[in-house]
From TrEMBL:
This is DUF2267 domain-containing protein.
Amino acid sequence: MSELIKQIVEKTGVPAEQAQQVVDVVANFVKQKFPQFGGQIDSLLGTSGDNSGNTGSGNILGDLGSKLGF
């Protein structure tokens, strides 16, 4: 996942923490839409799979994703 975050930072100029949040929101969205691929997504991104879609309380992107149904 660090390679993806690095590319997002380089191409967009957003801080690494925000890039991490974006990746988490997108990964959780895809896992909700295609649950059969959840394990592969976790494997690809190097995540544990225990992220419920909420990337933390007070997290703007996590809250936005929740409000949009992600």
